[in-house]
Amino acid sequence: MKILTNDKKSDLEIVLVFNKKLPKNLTKTQKDALALRDYKGEGVCFIGEQIFIGVDSYNYPFPNALRDAIANAIPTIKKLNIATASICIEDLQSAKEVCEGLFLGDYSFETYKSKKSQSKLKTIYLHSKTIESRALQAVITEVEHICISINAVREIINTPPAIATPEYVANMATKKAKELGITCMVYEQKFLEKEKMGAFLAVAKASSNAPYLVHLTYKPKNASGKKIPKIALVGKGLTYDSGGLSLKPGDYMTTMKADKSGACAVLGILEAVARLELNAEVHGILGLAENMIGGNAYKPDDILIARNKKSIEVRNTDAEGRLVLADCLSYASDLKPDFLLDIATLTGACVVALGDYSIGVMGYNAKLAESFNKIAFSAGELSATLPFNPYLRKLFNSDVADLCNIPSSRYGSAISAGMFLGEFVAQELQQKWLHLDIAGPAYVEKAWGVNPFGATGASVRSIVEFIKHKIKD
Ligand code: BES
Ligand code: ZN
Ligand code: ZN
């Protein structure tokens, strides 16, 4: 689907209905047609060459009414025998939201379907009485860059685990980096051994698919000499999480191809940042491995030595993400970034706490977490802070090592997992670090908002916006 700015005559006019208030300038025929269908401004109603889309109103802060309304209407519009549709926009913010609803709501994972869905709809025209067409075009282009990146992330995450192995994701990163002109280093197992990444290596041991650490670097081409922010992003890239010897029950194992969502999001953020040519230095570190079972699998009772020399008692091999991230966070700390963010489908507990729709935001800098939440909200993603406290920190003390990979209580374990990660962030970066748990929103089995079935690309929009803010600050 293409979005263009012009006011050419289209096959279908999309009319937005806010707060159930139908437009005043309707003709008698239109009014009669709507009355006949008993349309009062909720949901979608189709009359002649017009489709009315009701935008829900809420009496609490919610960023996505317009995005969701547009995304929800897409299937209906695509079924019509039309090639073009047009929509009139009042302001730049609505333009952005409409474009996001269209680009993100239009994705579907059909690579393995013999029969692909077909639609004649090719182009949506955006026009406005109040906005200059150049400004409108700029918004469309920006949203398109971000959404192309998000849909690419979704496609990799949705790819089945037999294909999307650590090597596949690493190759994908190499290919993308080449296209985008950014640096991509792919490090193999030997490098992990040299770096003494004992935690990461243990997780990967039982898989016949070798682990990789990918380090992407984006630097703006015409750096102005002015200091630019340096941001390091670390992504959990478990291309499959069977749980390892602490094997997951069958029901919980399905969808675990999506345990690579953090790493894929990081790849997508680098793609978006490069496409937008943002004025920041951005590093993406992808910890890619598969958590499997086998004769040489790591075991509950093992004691691992992480890159930063801390010893970790393993009590549950299903708490593997934090082990991979531990070594990646230590590696990323050496880059001395201004901000360090990790993105991970880390805990089921985060989903229990916040629901399927929100990102859990954690860290030692409450102000930074709050500012992230505001930015995420403006970008159309839901998030909430889960606050650290010293009682939860104590829960992963070990009798035989420096730390234990699971806490002694399952209550609050999204937070204790976050605090575990903090042990591997360099001291001087503690205030510059945020942990984002995307276990809830990364993958959906029932479409919601702008997210069709499958991977969503959660956190990409928020973090791109976060980077943009750090450039301005
Ligand atoms: N990848 C899972 C977390 C997860 C759960 C992601 C549901 C997406 C949806 C993670 O590796 C895991 O298994 N965590 C365990 C930790 C426990 C063993 C302390 C969990 O959340 O149950
Ligand atoms: Zn696990
Ligand atoms: Zn996992």
Automatic annotation (TrEMBL):
Localisation: Cytoplasm
Binding-site residues, Mn(2+) 2: 236, 241, 259, 320
GO MF annotations, alphabetized: aminopeptidase activity
Cofactor note: Binds 2 manganese ions per subunit.
Record keywords, A-Z: Aminopeptidase, Cytoplasm, Hydrolase, Manganese, Metal-binding, Protease
Domain Cytosol aminopeptidase: 316-323
Gene3D superfamilies for this protein: Leucine Aminopeptidase, subunit E, domain 1, Zn peptidases
Enzymatic reactions: Release of an N-terminal amino acid, preferentially leucine, but not glutamic or aspartic acids; Release of an N-terminal amino acid, Xaa-|-Yaa-, in which Xaa is preferably Leu, but may be other amino acids including Pro although not Arg or Lys, and Yaa may be Pro. Amino acid amides and methyl esters are also readily hydrolyzed, but rates on arylamides are exceedingly low
Cited PANTHER family: CYTOSOL AMINOPEPTIDASE, LEUCINE AMINOPEPTIDASE-RELATED
Protein name: Probable cytosol aminopeptidase
Organism: Helicobacter turcicus
